[in-house]
Design brief:
The structure holds 3 protein chains of 3 kinds.
Chain A lengths: L2 H24 L9 E6 L6 H18 L4 E6 L5 H10 L6 E4 L4 H6 L3 E2 L14 H6 L1 E2 L2 E2 L2 E5 L3 E5 H6 L9 H13 L3 E3 L13 H7 L17 H15 L24 E7 L1 H11 L4 E3 L11 E2 L2 E7 L5 H11 L2 H11 L17 H8 L2 E2 L7 H17 L4 H18 L2
Parallel strand pairs in A: 1-2, 1-3, 9-10, 12-14
Antiparallel strand pairs in A: 3-13, 4-13, 5-6, 7-13, 8-10, 8-11
Chain B lengths: L1 H7 L25 H9 L2 H16 L13 H5 L13 H37 L16 H8 L1 H34 L4 H13 L2 H12 L5 H8 L14 H26 L3 H9 L4 H12 L1 H16 L3 H6 L11 H11 L3 H25 L6
Helix pairs in contact in B: 1-5, 5-17, 6-17, 7-11, 7-14, 7-16, 8-11, 9-11, 11-14, 12-13, 14-17, 16-17
Chain C lengths: L1 H28 L7 H5 L7 H7 L4 H32 L5 H11 L4 H14 L6 H5 L6 H11 L4 H9 L4 H12 L1 H17 L2 H6 L8 H7 L7 H26 L11
Helix pairs in contact in C: 1-14, 3-14, 4-8, 4-11, 4-13, 5-8, 8-11, 9-10, 11-14
Classes of the chains: A alpha/beta, B mainly alpha, C mainly alpha.
Chain lengths: 421, 381, 267
């Protein structure tokens, strides 16, 4: 009775044991010694091979410069990034150094797991772009040392513009509003937008707010400021476009995955928060002749784009803080910033370093960098976004007027801020 | 564990006089090898009895060849050699005690794993829910503060409503689909394995992948479904962008992905319904529906109970599908309770609050499952 | 007409289950940007490029090996422990049985996201971070498996066990020689499920593994996805992940439901 079953199970068990033995051989790798520095890095360079090669080079270079230090740069996935980092820190197994963005810093700082990096960047400090440093600063201390800077700008589809008979890419709100009916007649939407709850408002609504001259928080940081006339103007601009069919309806569920967005799929003529990587993907998908990278979108009061630094933070409970600081200092040197910028298509967070542009649109993005704003750092920034994003959806679906939506969000937001320490 | 084990496997055989009564003669042939089973299934229970007893004995004599035994659990070593059957003791209490010990011994490995890796972290979460835990390890006791805040939180109640509605949509959809396909496959003799494989395909993928694929299918602009509707002169329908359609749409996608699980289990359950029973019903003149409703379904009850409970528990904890497809929108129309928990914990780092949400959800599901048990499972135990 | 109904229904359901799957494979082979159906359907433009982009010289074999360890060891141990526990819950009377069973079941109702931190702290305290046992052992406490086993074993007629016991078999022997063979299809079914759950698992292998050597396939593939990954690359990764699952299902297919004791159930 067991013939068939045994036939299947016995090899399965054997395979299991063999696999376990085989895997056991390669696993492990010595415990952490005192002069080991562990770094958690993410695939910041788009091509996996180039990413591995670049960070492998950094390991070698650092170990050569600091003999006796064992540097381990471990690549981590972007997916579930905060869950992995939070559990590791909670369990006392966090890395010595980790790549952080401005929106992560308040959470980790409030949990007491980050050590200020001011000591490590003593020599680089004066050279940083003030905005880049400010984005990483909380309570007067810097919690991540910027090693690269990203920038976004407008991205146009030349073929679609031509189809609607547009000669100039619309570069301001007014031009955009004027172009929308022409594009609509050609069966094309005008502006791509991401209103999904997981899309950062820094890449969607906030740039419009800033272009209208508004702010998210007031100067004191104790009250919200987005529901003022500038905010209403920005949201009204967006809602009118959406109503007129100039913003595609997929905006409500749009995640920030370029090839899956209406823009990547050539259903819409332009985006206004697109990265150099988006432009590269667009060149693949549309043909490079059809890609236009324009200047930062101009609003009624300002010309602003979003661009943020990426930086290295240090574990407050790390076993090798001296080594960690040495690594952070190493990575913030001009030569390293230039090398990372070249490998990843990034810009420099230091004003004394210019990354020689390599991409087809390097010049345009370099120009946009002058208008880049890294967002308003605040302890409750994430919570506030979670309150505001659904209200923007409500305005888009017509459930609320722009003013009602913003007022509702502001009330909830002010409540939230009042509860903060 | 091993101490309990060695006491729990007494050398003397279990012998309960009442169990050795006339029932014994009807031991069915559940254990037949694949080659002979078909022939046996055709016969009546009575004619199969002698072979059955022989088979059981033959297997008993050669236990080491059973596959799982080769995994060498600790218990294996403590099994004493088989002794000849002793005389019936007639002492019921001793037999009861032996049975209890054996039961505990069999549960022991799983029980230890459970106490350490399930109950432990759950108690941990319950404790954290009473604190303002921070990742650095410091915490202050806040009593029921997190719970009080939760009851006051409008978003929590909205998420609870969304979750309940989703469960009410998803569970009937999935179980009906699973039962329907299981019955369909059960009836099919031709290429059954092939079709079973095709039906099971969606379950093989991860829920994240299924959500990505269904997001395209539902797209307003050029999604598969709207293209098809457009061909019929209908639509476009904004499946994921409409507050009233978003939950049914997500539930349908999740049902597509998830029904294979319940289908396989129900199919196994259907196949364990004795053929004689349904054959007898045919003779009594019952039609297909009547046979299913009054014969098959009651026999399927333990398995159906399992499927309902598991699917409901899963539905209450829905998160990934919404995270990928709608990010909780539009206007929080698909913002589930576990999504709320995830945001509180891993977006806002409010861990004590997140644990409180988890425990409240646990209580809700527990109460729901107990009600389910009363309704569906009352004859199960 | 009535005879046609069955094949038509089968074909319809199969169409619904297979189509999205086929879309995944087509998009995985489509050139970048080709994600809409007409574009992806154009087989002449099929390319391995997405697979090359995803794998890019990475240590995929090592990851697959880790996934295999995680999945297969878990399958064997969960089948063993869950069938033992399920048998006891179904057929043995012991004090606290009901309470224990519901306690097992109740742990299923606590969302993993809520216990993730204490769970991780515990395993970290026990020294399980970045080890195989830390990856595998905590996931063996699978109450769904115990529950499933119990529900099937509870239907088996008691006489089967009594007969064996009367022949002098010990409790362990009754379990290995009577219970296990009887529940063969359930073991196969559960084996498939456990394999899929572990093979597709992402969150736990992600948080518990740290070094590159401990990476499973799902985690490893994710480390290759830049922030601007294309949908074609995602689908290529998914296609790679799915193949072993299909193999396992194919292998166990014939044991899946070839009837639990066709006519041996208590009516």
């Amino acid at each position: 009775m067991k013939t068939g079953f045994t036939r299947a199970a016995a090899p399965l068990v054997l395979l299991c044991l063999a696999v376990l033995a085989a895997a056991g051989c390669g696993a492990g790798g010595g415990g952490s010694s005192a002069n080991q520095v562990t770094v958690w890095m993410y695939p910041v360079i788009m091509d996996p091979k180039a990413n591995a090669a670049y960070w492998g080079g950094v390991e070698k270079g650092f170990e050569r410069a600091h003999p006796g230090t064992d540097l381990r740069i471990e690549q981590q996935p972007w997916e579930n990034r905060d869950q992995k980092l939070a559990t590791a820190f909670g369990g006392g197994k966090g890395p010595d150094v980790v790549l952080l963005g401005p929106d992560q810093i308040p959470q980790y700082q409030a949990n007491g797991v980050l050590r200020p990096v001011d000591g490590a960047i003593r020599s680089a400090r004066a050279a940083y772009r003030p905005a880049a440093l400010k984005a990483m600063t909380l309570d007067g201390k810097v919690y991540a040392a910027p090693i690269y800077h990203t920038v976004t700008s407008t991205l146009y589809n030349r073929r679609l513009l031509a189809k609607a008979g547009l000669k100039e890419p619309p570069a301001t709100w007014a031009a955009l509003k004027a172009a929308a009916p022409k594009l609509k007649r050609a069966g094309i939407a005008t502006l791509d937008y991401s209103a999904s709850g997981e899309a950062s408002l820094n890449m969607s609504f906030y740039p419009l707010l800033w272009q209208a001259g508004g702010r998210v928080f007031d100067e004191s940081g104790r009250r919200t400021a987005f529901a003022g006339p500038e905010g209403v103007e920005a949201l009204t601009f967006l809602v009118e476009l959406y109503r007129a069919g100039a913003v595609p309806r997929s905006a409500l569920t749009n995640a920030n995955l370029f090839t899956d967005q209406a823009l990547g799929r050539q259903q819409v003529a332009m985006g206004y928060t697109n990265t150099p990587a988006d432009a590269a993907l667009a060149a693949q998908a549309w043909g490079s002749d059809n890609v236009i990278v324009g200047p930062a979108l101009g609003g009624p009061r300002k010309q602003v784009v979003f661009g943020m630094p990426g930086g290295l933070g240090i574990n407050a409970a790390g076993r090798n803080t001296a080594g960690a600081e040495r690594f952070v200092a190493y990575m913030t040197q001009p030569a390293q910033i230039a090398a990372l910028g070249r490998a990843g298509g990034f810009f420099s967070p230091r004003s004394d370093v210019t990354v020689p542009g390599t991409g087809a649109h390097a010049k345009e993005y370099e120009a946009a960098l002058a208008y880049a704003f890294p967002g308003e750092p605040h302890r409750a920034a994430r919570q506030l976004q979670a309150l505001l994003a659904p209200e923007i959806q409500a305005a888009l679906t017509g459930e609320k007027s722009p003013r009602e939506a913003l007022t509702a969000a502001a009330e909830a937001g002010d409540d939230l801020l009042a509860r903060q320490r | 564990m091993s101490r309990v084990e060695s006491r729990a496997t007494p050398p003397s055989p279990e012998e309960e006089p009442e169990a050795a009564g006339p029932e014994k003669a009807r031991t069915p042939v559940a254990t037949g090898p694949a080659e002979t089973r078909t022939a046996e299934a055709a016969g009546s229970p009575e004619t199969r009895t002698p072979e059955a007893a022989g088979l059981v004995a033959a297997v008993a004599a050669d236990g080491t060849r059973t596959p799982v035994a080769t995994a060498a659990p600790p218990e294996d070593r403590t099994v004493p050699p088989v002794t000849a059957p002793g005389p019936p003791t007639g002492r019921k209490s001793a037999a009861r005690r032996r049975e209890a010990l054996a039961g505990l011994a069999f549960v022991a490995p799983m029980l230890v794993l459970f106490l350490v890796f399930r109950i432990g972290p759950t108690l941990g979460a319950a404790f954290l829910s009473l604190t303002d835990y921070r990742l650095s390890g410091d915490w202050a006791f806040v009593g029921a503060g997190n719970y009080a805040r939760l009851l006051d939180d409008r978003l929590f109640w909205e998420a609870l409503g969304v979750t309940a509605l989703y469960t009410a949509l998803y569970v009937p959809m999935t179980v009906a689909l699973a039962l329907g396909t299981a019955v369909l496959l059960h009836r099919t003799l031709w290429l059954r394995g092939f079709f079973r494989g095709l039906f099971f395909l969606p379950y093989v993928t991860s829920i994240v992948l299924a959500a990505v694929i269904w997001k395209w299918i539902y797209e307003v602009e050029d999604g598969l479904l709207n293209t098809a509707l457009g061909g019929l002169g209908l639509g476009p329908v904004d499946f994921l962008g409409s507050e009233s359609l978003v939950l049914p749409s997500i539930a349908a996608a999740s049902a597509w992905k998830g029904f294979g699980y319940s289908m396989l289990i129900l199919l196994a359950g259907l196949q364990s319904v004795p053929r004689e029973v349904t054959e007898a019903a045919v003779i009594d003149g019952a039609n297909t529906w009547q046979r299913f409703r009054w014969v098959t379904l009651p026999l399927l009850r333990p398995v159906l109970f399992f499927v309902l409970v598991i699917e409901a528990i899963g539905a209450f904890q829905v998160f990934d599908a919404m995270y990928v497809m709608t990010a909780g929108g539009p206007v929080r129309a698909s913002y589930s309770l576990v999504y709320f928990l995830y945001d509180a914990g891993f977006k806002f780092f409010d861990f004590g609050y997140a644990c409180a949400v988890g425990l409240v959800l646990f209580l809700v599901v527990l109460v729901f499952s107990l009600i389910q048990r009363r309704l569906v499972g009352r004859e199960v135990d | 007409m009535a005879r046609l109904r069955l094949p038509v229904l089968l074909a319809l359901v199969a169409l619904v289950t297979v189509t999205p799957f086929a879309v995944m494979v087509l998009v995985a082979f489509a050139p970048p940007g080709g994600r809409t159906l007409p574009g992806a359907l154009d087989v002449t433009r099929a390319t391995w490029q997405n697979f090359a982009d995803v794998l890019g010289g990475a240590d995929v074999l090592r990851w697959a090996l880790n996934s295999l360890v995680y999945s297969l060891v878990s399958v064997v141990l969960i089948l063993l422990f869950a069938s033992m526990a399920g048998y006891a819950f179904a057929k043995k009377r012991f004090p606290g049985r009901e309470v224990l069973f519901w306690a097992f079941l109740a742990t299923l109702m606590v969302p993993f996201q809520a216990t993730l931190i204490p769970y991780y702290l515990l395993v970290a305290e026990l020294g399980g971070v970045d080890t195989y046992w830390g990856l595998i052992v905590p996931t063996l406490a699978n109450s769904q498996a115990v529950f499933l086993m119990r529900q099937f074993i509870v239907q088996l007629p008691d006489e089967l066990f009594e007969a064996a016991r009367m022949d002098g078999a010990s409790e362990w022997r009754v379990y290995t020689t009577v219970v296990l063979p009887l529940i063969r299809p359930v073991l196969a079914t559960l084996g498939v499920f456990v394999f899929l759950w572990h093979w597709n698992d992402f969150l736990w292998p992600l948080v518990i593994g740290q070094s590159e050597a401990m990476r499973t396939l799902t985690v490893g593939l994710a480390t290759l996805e830049g922030e601007n990954v294309t949908i074609n690359q995602i689908m290529a990764g998914a296609t790679i992940t799915v193949i072993p699952c299909l193999l396992v299902f194919g292998l166990l297919q014939r044991y899946l439901t070839d009837s639990i004791a066709t006519s041996g159930m208590k009516a």
